[in-house]
């Protein structure tokens, strides 16, 4: 019998991505549930898809897809730099925000470094830290919010990096840039702060919540964004990193060439250029977020006030009960046991008809439960 090759010790606590019901593609959900109509409200995707400009751009560029892409995505970086008032050298593209998170960890973390991570939050930060041999140190949320005072108090001599998700996943809560500026001013030199703004464009006022205005004053600050959310390009896998040109150069040292393919670059370029569409997506999401908050509150659930394209709701009992009932009716949400929030559900804000179906299903359950 051949001896099994042992995995690296730093990966002992890592696990493959689970493929549970909320994680399955819609096509597979239809088969699994035996239903043609399935509403998937578990992945925080843009239910309207990308700008129509994306399909046109991809069709025009398809004849060149036999060629390797620009290794740095310079056209896309230049377009974003002009919009944000930065230089193209302050941008780096990744295969989704997930790869960007891993690249940042590889570039700056050494074994044994402490990485502060508010909890619960997006799981990729802890995984990236462990992959680099660093030590994730969680800081509890306060009333579903990241408490920057608690995070600052947790900083020690061994702290090398801090991940902040703003708005936070899975709670949807956000802190303003002014609070972040005060927090940054209290940190010792040598602590790198990484702010993940995947959902920033969904906030009521993106400019007041972004860390971008703080980059010049804080050279140890990095900002991550993605095209997977409001731009509707989750399948294209395009994320990006912003920071000082020096920090970006350090991350480029560990970035593989051609990590973002030509289709993704073309799609992102077209999507980013359609600002009217982005504004429309924000407005539609905000309207539906207010409507859904009102309806879910009326059901007796606590709805955490959020700024993203999803809502965290506390059902007051095991969240898997409501999850199972909804799944039986073809509506998939995310139970939050994996976030250590066992009574909660995270619900993506869908199209009006999807949100109405969700509320109708829950109201029907309440009626049957009280009969």
3D architecture notes:
This protein is α/β, with parallel strands linked by helices and 371 residues long. The protein has two domains: 17-49 and 276-370, Aspartate Aminotransferase, domain 1, CATH 3.90.1150; 52-273, Type I PLP-dependent aspartate aminotransferase-like (Major domain) (Aspartate Aminotransferase, domain 2), CATH 3.40.640.10. The chain is 39% helix and 15% strand. It contains 13 helices and 13 strands. The chain has helices at residues 26-33, 52-61, 74-84, 96-108, 124-131, 148-153, 177-186, 206-209, 245-252, 262-273, 275-298, 319-328, 352-370, and strands at residues 39-40, 91-94, 114-119, 135-140, 159-165, 192-196, 221-226, 239-242, 302-303, 310-314, 331-332, 334-335, 344-348. The strands form three sheets. The protein has a seven-stranded mixed beta sheet with strand order 2-8-7-6-5-3-4, with helices on both faces. A hairpin with a 6-residue loop joins strand 9 and strand 10 (310-314). The chain starts with 25 loop residues before the first helix and ends with a helix. The model is unreliable at 367-371 (pLDDT under 50). One of its GO terms (biological process) is L-histidine biosynthetic process. InterPro entries: Aminotransferase_I/II_large, HisP_aminotrans, HistidinolP_aminotransfase, PyrdxlP-dep_Trfase, PyrdxlP-dep_Trfase_major, PyrdxlP-dep_Trfase_small. One of its GO terms (molecular function) is histidinol-phosphate transaminase activity. Its EC number is 2.6.1.9. It catalyses: L-histidinol phosphate + 2-oxoglutarate = 3-(imidazol-4-yl)-2-oxopropyl phosphate + L-glutamate.
């Amino acid at each position: 019998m051949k001896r099994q090759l042992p995995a690296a010790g730093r990966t002992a606590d890592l696990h493959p991505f689970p493929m549970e019901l909320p994680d399955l593609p819609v096509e597979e959900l239809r088969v699994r549930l035996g239903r043609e109509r399935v509403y998937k409200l578990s992945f925080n995707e843009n239910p309207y898809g990308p700008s129509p400009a994306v399909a046109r751009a991809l069709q025009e560029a398809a004849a060149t897809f036999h060629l390797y892409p620009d290794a740095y995505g310079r056209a896309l970086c230049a377009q974003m730099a002009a919009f944000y008032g930065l230089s193209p050298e302050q941008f780096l593209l990744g295969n989704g925000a997930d790869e960007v998170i891993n690249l940042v960890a590889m570039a700056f973390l050494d074994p044994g470094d402490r990485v502060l991570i508010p909890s619960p939050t997006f799981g990729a930060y802890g995984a990236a830290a462990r992959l680099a041999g660093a030590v994730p140190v969680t800081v509890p949320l306060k009333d579903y919010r990241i408490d920057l005072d608690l995070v600052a108090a947790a900083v020690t001599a061994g702290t090398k990096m801090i991940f902040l998700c703003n708005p936070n996943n899975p709670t949807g809560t956000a802190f303003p840039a002014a609070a972040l500026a005060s927090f940054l001013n209290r940190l010792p030199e040598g602590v790198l702060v990484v702010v993940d703004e995947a959902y920033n464009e969904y906030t009521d006022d993106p400019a007041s919540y972004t860390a971008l205005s703080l980059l010049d004053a804080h050279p140890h600050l990095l900002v991550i964004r993605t095209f997977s959310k409001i731009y509707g390009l989750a399948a294209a896998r395009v994320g990006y990193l912003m920071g000082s040109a020096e920090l970006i150069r350090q991350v480029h040292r560990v970035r593989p060439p051609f990590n973002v393919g030509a289709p993704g670059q073309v799609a992102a370029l077209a999507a980013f250029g359609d600002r009217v569409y982005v504004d429309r997506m924000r407005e539609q999401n905000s309207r539906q977020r207010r409507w859904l908050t009102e309806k879910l509150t009326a059901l007796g659930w606590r709805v955490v006030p959020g700024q993203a394209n999803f809502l965290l709701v506390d059902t007051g009992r095991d969240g898997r009960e409501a999850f199972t009932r909804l799944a039986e009716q073809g509506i998939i949400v995310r139970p939050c046991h994996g976030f250590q929030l066992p009574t909660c559900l995270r619900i993506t804000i869908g199209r009006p008809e999807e949100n109405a179906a969700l509320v109708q299903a829950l109201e029907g359950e309440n009626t049957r439960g009280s009969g």
